[in-house]
């Protein structure tokens, strides 16, 4: 069964506040990981969404070096990357050399949800869900006929067809335009049970990885992932508290 992508409205990863997904058509999963920023070899065993939370990469700037990872998969003709950690804009890089790419970004603390389409290294079109009258990209009105046909906007694109409808329903309607136009689908199980390969895309290797990893092993703490070579935020804080109490 094709799940589409409308179910993504309001859904979050194990972070509890964000869902950030890149789709790419025209490259495989390894190439998508590379374009997302993964260095050679920074790949770990498959993990579920819940297991990814144990990597503890949602770091703020005062928690040591920033780090981020992606879980990578392929479905319905699109490779996809689900990101964890600080926001990174990679749409044009992902879409270079003739590739098509879509970026879906939901942050519960910073609306609106943004959906953008790029091709050949250029941002073509996109909009915020429930803010479709403001459209962006080099061909900003490419999806305007689709938005009108879907009952999101009146012809001309300046007024909404049903501004008083439920907000989530309006978001689903706006996202359905991308789903239909680009034949996008993502299994719901990517956030529940699917184990997907994990790649480090920011901060790997942490410069003090070996030092903190050795300390963790000597003190009965879980050792950080050797393949990703990132230090979880909680482990770093504990290490600094013990080794530098005045910090």
Record keyword descriptors for this entry.
alpha+beta, nine-stranded antiparallel β-sheet, 7 helices, 25% strand
What would your notes on this structure say?
24% of the residues lie in helices and 25% in strands. The protein has helices spanning 29-35, 49-53, 91-94, 144-149, 167-182, 209-218, 233-243, and strands spanning 18-25, 43-47, 68-75, 78-84, 100-107, 114-119, 122-128, 131-136, 196-202. The protein has a 9-stranded antiparallel sheet with strand order 2-9-3-4-1-5-6-7-8, with helices on both faces. The longest helix is centred in the last third of the chain and has 16 residues, at 167-182. The model has no long low-confidence stretch (mean pLDDT 94).
Would you spell out the secondary-structure blueprint of this structure?
Elements: E1 18-25, H1 29-35, E2 43-47, H2 49-53, E3 68-75, E4 78-84, H3 91-94, E5 100-107, E6 114-119, E7 122-128, E8 131-136, H4 144-149, H5 167-182, E9 196-202, H6 209-218, H7 233-243
Antiparallel strand pairs: 1-4, 1-5, 2-9, 3-4, 3-9, 5-6, 6-7, 7-8
């Amino acid at each position: 069964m094709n799940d589409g992508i409308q179910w993504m409205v309001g859904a979050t990863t194990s972070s509890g506040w964000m869902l950030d997904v890149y789709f790419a058509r025209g490259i495989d999963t390894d190439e998508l990981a590379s374009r997302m920023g993964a260095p050679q070899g920074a790949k770990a065993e498959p993990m579920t969404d819940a297991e990814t939370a144990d990597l503890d990469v949602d770091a703020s700037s005062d928690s040591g070096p920033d780090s981020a990872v992606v879980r990578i998969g392929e479905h319905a003709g699109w490779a996809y990357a689900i990101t964890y950690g600080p926001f990174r804009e990679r749409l044009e890089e992902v879409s270079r050399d003739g590739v098509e790419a879509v970026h879906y970004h939901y942050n519960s603390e910073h609306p609106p949800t943004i959906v953008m389409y790029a091709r050949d290294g250029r941002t073509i079109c996109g909009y915020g869900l429930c803010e479709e009258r403001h459209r962006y990209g080099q061909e900003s009105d490419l999806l305007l006929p689709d938005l009108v046909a879907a009952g999101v906007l009146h012809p001309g694109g300046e007024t909404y067809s049903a501004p008083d409808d439920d907000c989530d329903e309006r978001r689903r309607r706006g996202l359905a335009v991308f789903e239909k136009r680009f034949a996008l689908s993502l299994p719901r199980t990517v956030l529940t049970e699917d184990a997907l390969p994990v790649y480090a895309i920011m901060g790997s290797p942490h410069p003090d990885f070996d030092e903190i990893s050795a300390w963790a092993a000597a003190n009965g703490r879980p050792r950080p992932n050797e393949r990703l070579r990132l230090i979880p935020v909680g482990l770093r804080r504990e290490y600094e508290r013990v080794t530098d109490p005045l910090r």
